[in-house]
Design brief:
This protein is mainly alpha-helical and 345 residues long. The chain has 13 helices and no strands. The radius of gyration is 22 Å and the shape is globular.
Length: 345
């Protein structure tokens, strides 16, 4: 009689450990990735204080590393390298990912860093819109309420700092139409990427490494083409050759970026695009809070309210989801009596 509850408990425990693995992996890799990225792009190298200016070269290095690792994993596990889905579908993910990165870099010329961080926190909404359009998902009003509350809480946290100088990009251009358009493009392309990944996983029963291999290979070709057309390939290689410490930073950056890609794909396949968006939204808030603790930045009372709104909304969402999936006691008794060897669905 106790076997169904034991099976259900084992499944729940496995899911909890999968969630811990996904969340910790994304948090750790992307925080390290952000630090390295900022160091490479903002800290000068060498005696002459030269800055590395070739961001597309970083994209190329990250993608070629990820593509090589995923191909090695497929070969080591004796799985075929043949595409499971039509190649153009892999290319769609790759193109949207490249456009997401481009909008992210270009937007910093026109909007402040807090505004861009705010846009990243609002990605739950475009994911839900794309989920409705691409996968014909029907979200409940409660899901839209949670997305709105999370975005509202992050907005309050970011836009009401305790200090006055909170934006290193505050040059008076943050309200331009072009800057806002770039942020809308970032949100749209980023939401499409994770949602279409979710669709491929569910529609083709696709392995994580298979999707990563083809999407990153396509990204390699696109970024390499962009470097050649812009004339930045040889100058970037020359810069890395002259500054060995920059080479080491790029190697570390590519390694962490590769690890983050696997964690991201694993999370989307296991929990879906909306859960991934919630994790990424929380990561933005956690990163800011860790920065405040590490560098002794004070938190305003508005920021504490924002943090309570975000985490309270996410915990409430998880609690309500668990409550709706749990059958009533009478149904549990009937299920155990009729089918003692089958767990509760």
């Amino acid at each position: 009689m106790a076997e169904p509850s034991t099976t259900t408990g084992d499944v729940r425990e496995k899911k909890i450990w999968k969630g811990i693995f996904a969340v910790s992996g994304i948090m750790i890799t992307l925080v390290i990735y952000g630090v390295l990225q900022e160091k490479i792009m903002r800290v000068p190298y060498g005696v002459n204080k030269e800055y590395f200016k070739y961001s597309l070269f970083l994209v190329f290095c990250n993608r070629i590393t990820t593509s090589t690792v995923s191909a090695g994993v497929l070969l080591a596990s004796k799985k075929a390298l043949d595409p499971v889905a039509p190649v153009y579908k892999y290319c769609l993910i790759s193109v949207s990912n490249i456009l997401t990165t481009t909008c992210q870099y270009e937007a910093l010329k026109y909007v402040s860093f807090p505004v861009q961080t705010l846009a990243k926190c609002a990605k739950m909404i475009p994911v839900m819109i794309w989920g409705t359009c691409i996968m014909q998902k029907r979200y409940k009003g409660f899901d839209y309420l949670v997305a709105f509350l999370v975005t509202l809480g992050c907005s309050i946290f970011i836009l009401f700092p305790a200090g006055t100088d909170f934006s290193p990009y505050n040059s008076g251009r943050e309200n331009t139409v072009w800057g806002i358009s770039l942020m809308i493009g970032y949100l749209g392309f980023d939401g499409f990427t994770s949602t279409f990944q979710d669709k491929l996983f569910k529609g083709y029963n696709m392995e994580i490494h298979n999707q990563i291999f083809y999407t990153t290979t396509c990204s390699c070709l696109l970024s390499l083409t962009g470097l050649v057309l812009q004339g930045h390939l040889l100058p970037a290689i020359e810069f890395v050759y002259r500054h060995s410490d920059c080479f080491l930073d790029i190697v570390l950056l590519s390694t962490v970026a590769t690890a983050s890609q696997f964690f991201i794909s694993y999370t989307i396949r296991t929990f879906g695009a909306l859960t991934f968006a919630a994790i990424m939204t929380t990561r933005q808030l956690v990163s800011i809070m860790l920065s405040c603790v590490w560098f002794s930045h004070p938190l305003s009372w508005e920021q504490w309210i924002g943090a309570v709104i975000v985490f309270g909304s996410l915990y409430m969402k998880n609690f309500m989801k668990t409550a709706t999936q749990r059958p009533p006691p009478s149904e549990q008794t009937q299920t155990r009596a009729s089918s003692p060897v089958k767990g509760i669905p």
